[in-house]
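Homework help board

Subject: predicted structure for assignment chain

Our instructor gave us this sequence and asked us to write out the predicted structure in token form, then describe one feature. I got the tokens but I'm not sure how to describe them. Can anyone check?
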Amino acid sequence: MTANGNGELSIEELRERYRIEREKRLRSDGVKQYAELKGEYQELDVDTYADPSFTRDPITEDTHVVVVGGGFAGMLTAINLTKQGVTDFRIVEKAGDFGGTWYWNRYPGCMCDVESYTYLPMLEATGYMPTERYASASEIFEYCKLLGQTFDLYPHALFQTVITGAEWDDGSGKWIVTTSRGDRITTKFVVVAGGILHKPKLPGIPGITEYQGKMFHTSHWDYDYTGGSPKEPMDKLAGKRVGIVGTGATAVQAVPQLAKTAEELYVFQRTPSAVGERNNAPTDVEWFKGLQPGWQAERIENFTHAVTGVQPEQDLVHDGWTEVMWVNTQKACDDPEEAAALERSDFETMEKLRRRVDTIVEDPETAAKLKPYYGKNCKRVCFHDEYLPAFNQPNVHLVDTDGKGVQQITATGAVVDGVEYPLDCLIFASGFETNTDYDGRVGFDPVGRDGISLSERWSEGARTLHGILSGGFPNFFIISFLQAGFGTNFVHFLGKSAEHVAEVIVRCDEEDIATIEATPEAEDEWLMVLYGTAAGAATYSASCTPGYYNSEQGEVDAKGARNLVYAGSLLDYAGYLERWRETDDLPGALITRAG
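My token output:
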């Protein structure tokens, strides 16, 4: 990094460094570089937490609502339905319990990077006090079970069950849902709340299926092999050479724990993460007891304002997130002076994070490789107090691939730049599918009116109203980031979406609405709204290194141009939903009425 004569940041040279780092990572295969956990990788997608001997008789029944997914989105939808008197519903969940991503992700060190007081929903309703400011995955999973118990969701749940099909029957005005357990459920409404962090992906590295050592994805952690637990040392790794592929949010949390017991730990890095201070601490009991009714909703909105550049009078959360994201540096602006100021602000924020590396990592060469050269909105910023210090340990080795990734997997290890690293265990911290076709991510392809599947209707990209209703699919609700909101606190988005879906279902019941779906015109109008918010983010994203935020910088075709998120504030997106619900005629909805 260089500076001008005044010791200030050299904007021109930073731009050039960012450009170089971006271009060396560009790949022609984009998101196709990853492989699904199926076929030859199927053995990596086994639920090691559920009882493998579980069986039950098939169910044939009629219910009012089928909710697909038992994570926060599905649970909050069911809770909102229950609060409004709708108790005739089923929750169908692949896993063995509630929790969604917090059921699957039990890797060592796993925790939420958003403070628990704003992330965990409905704390006032349950009366639960998080033990720490940033809760561990184990605590969040237990809280999910508490939600299920508090709102009596367990009798409605079908666990270890996968939806295999959902087909609209125009004659009965019902959906026919089938499952892997032989169930046949008819229902008026279907809510797909599959989440975005539940379908693991693997890097499609040549030779990966030839590896003869132990291999698993972080979301399917094998404690039988490593020993220990999410909170106990992995004693069976003593004497083992362990490799972990990936240096994103998952690896940032797992690496320090692996470093404690592995004989040798090799961290394979394509792109370094920006890692700020976490400063976790136990909850101040007296402070928590003194919170006034309504405190959580206020705190959640305050946080969302702060991290989207809409500065509240008082930053109630005041943590790494609000400090880093206080200024919205990716907004579109026509004033050259303002644009220059935003660019400098972004550079200064990232430079502060780069300087932090130098204060912690003792070896200058390693420190240089751990510094991120891209904008703060290009990837999710990480916060951790043990990740960078781990590289000072003699058994921890950073294998920087200079943006290329692991070259090859052999029967005995991983190859980078022609050098093979022998490994006893290979762990993939490679994330989850977020940019693939929607039907592939949720695991089934719904069939709507006239026998047309969702994949057919969306063959040229998603078509929705608010990301929730789609034409040709009556009474079919989607909770996903696709053409919908997004935010640092994703549960805030899920809560707003779940509330919206439940209220629309109840309104349909109260007003004798037989079917509701989006009109083609409304879908096109919503797409124009999405394009209107995307201008600044799209320009910013184009300068970023590849990642899941920008579909690995793959070529954007007509389909990809429709598969975008609402790039404005999450609160603005929620405002669209609220205003729409307040109208008398629900504009943009094609409605038929009973009788």
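Reply (TA_rk): Your tokens look well-formed. For the description, you could write something like this. The longest strand covers residues 60-68. That's the kind of observation they're looking for.
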